[in-house]
Amino acid sequence: MPVVGIDDLAIYIPKLYLDYKDFAEARGIDPQKLEYGIGIKKMAITDTNQDSACMASNACLKLMQRNHLHPQDIGRVYVATESSLDESKAMNSFVVGMLEQIYGEGSFEHAGGIECKFACVSGSYALYDNANWIRAEENNGKAAVVIVSDIAKYDMGSTGEYTQGAGAVALLVKEKPRLMAFDQKVASTTIKNEYDFYRPFGKETPLVNGSYSNLLYLISVRKAFDAYKEKAIKSGLIKLKDGESITDHIDFFAVHLPYRKMGEKALAYLLRHEWRHLPRWKHVIKEIGTTEPQPKDARGTIESILADTQFMKADEQFRRAFMQTSFYDEVYEKKMATSLEASAIIGNLYTASMYMGLRSLLEFEFKKGTELAGKRVGFGSYGSGSSAMVFSGVIESEYKQVVSKMDLDEDVGPRQKLSMEEYERLHRNERAFTDSVVRAHKEFVLVKLGGITADKAGFREYDYVS
Ligand code: COA
Fold first, then answer.
1. Is residue 206 within 6 Å of ligand 1 at its C-beta?
2. How far apart are CA 357 and CA 332, in angstroms?
3. Average pLDDT, stretch 359-369?
């Protein structure tokens, strides 16, 4: 079976941001809560003439230009998003339209693709499906591009408001990738009908049960990880010796990142689950000084566990204490910390958040001088509603060709800080899309919205501003 994976990835981040100190002052929140409790310093905000389709196109164009790709080299363009623009017309059709302004009308006609939706996890399904399209040799020698693009926008004054952000990541999926080859026969999923986070038709911001969504994320990824572990052992990918945990065989973790702190908590949850039956756990407990609390009903539902306030409080205390141990710290510093850096200066990217985490990990580990070839990255992807996907990949020996050129500061570029007043006007959609805050430069923007006649209602037109 051909070796398939990610050859390169390019990012696009809008040029406006909101500073956490301004935000904290305006909302009467301790800035330390945002900086340490959530882990956010800057939230990327879209301008009036930007949407998830033009961010997706901007990321894809960067990817194509950097790799000297022509549309003939690409057989599939997928967009995974939860910031959909139309109930029927797929976002990748807008993207192809924009790219054809550069490469010529009809230049992508031979290709295919769809828009994928499942909250923040759909990009992972899109990657998996496209990797299999190549493995099945249906690709006629062509690569696939999977773009994850989203605008995380929450109600003003809600607790979600400090977990906003916007941006896109375009991933080049091909045979013999330079960056990372996906491990085969181990990708594992869970699915369940849930209402932890959802956005009914016509509503711009989601309805969120914050604490429920956090716990559901942890439990769903843990269940998918259990299934991954079973497959990895059965297939011989990972051989566990006595006293070992599967987490010992994963060199880096990249997980869904609605906000930086959630990544730290996800790692803590996973390590507790994987280690509590191993000999090392008694050393962990000794360092913490208390045993792990148990819920009244260990086989209960998420609701019953959340309602068990005594347990929840004790468990939160235990989780915090565990995160202070040398055992957690060693794994966190070595295997996760670098993947969280981008999140703190960009914010939530929904579908793109985990892939921005991967980008952050690669760049900052390389800058630290870590040798990455042969290292395994374990992914924990979660989408509300709800589904989780756990999979892994190994960094290829040619990775330096790609990673040595990564520069987050340069890729994010100069950004304009918004005042709270400007931000709130943008949030309320009070500025016309023609009245952008910054002047676009070398990027696609929205130039026409709707039409005079009813049959043109909902039309969206974009231009490349050189
Ligand atoms: N200094 C430092 N930390 C502080 C603080 C201060 N002054 N005040 C509070 N904090 C910490 C809290 O202790 C908590 O940390 P912990 O998680 O380690 O306990 C953290 O800040 C968050 O505060 P908390 O009050 O628990 O949560 P919140 O009401 O602010 O809501 C979310 C947080 C994530 C639930 C909310 O932002 C949300 O609903 N987001 C959208 C949904 C989402 O992202 N879901 C994720 C799964 S997909």
1. no
2. 14
3. 98
204 lines ligand 1 (CB under 6 A): no
Is the distance from CB of 82 to CB of 29 less than 8 angstroms? Answer: no
Tell me how many degrees the CA angle 87-88-89 measures, rounded to the nearest 5. 115
Do 375 and 362 contact (CB within 8 A), yes or no? Answer: no
Q: How far is the CA of 160 from the centre of ligand 1 (A)?
A: 9
Distance between CA atoms of residues 253 and 145, nearest Å: 23
For ligand 1, atom 30, the nearest C-alpha belongs to: 159
Helix, strand, coil % in the chain, rounded to nearest 5: 45, 20, 35
Q: How far apart are CA 121 and CA 250, in angstroms?
A: 21
Tokens 């009813």 belong to residue: 454
163 lines ligand 1 (CB under 6 A): yes
Between strands 416-417 and 16-19, the pairing is: parallel
Find the radius of gyration of the CA atoms of the chain: 22
Q: Which two tokens stand for residue 112?
A: 């295919």
Ligand 1 mean position to 52 CA, how many Å? 26
Instruction: Read off the pTM.
Output: 0.97
With cut-offs at 50, 70 and 90, classify the pLDDT of residue 452.
Answer: low
Percent of the chain with pLDDT over 70: 99
Which amino acid would we find at residue 48? T
User: Is the per-residue pLDDT at 429 higher than 90?
Assistant: yes
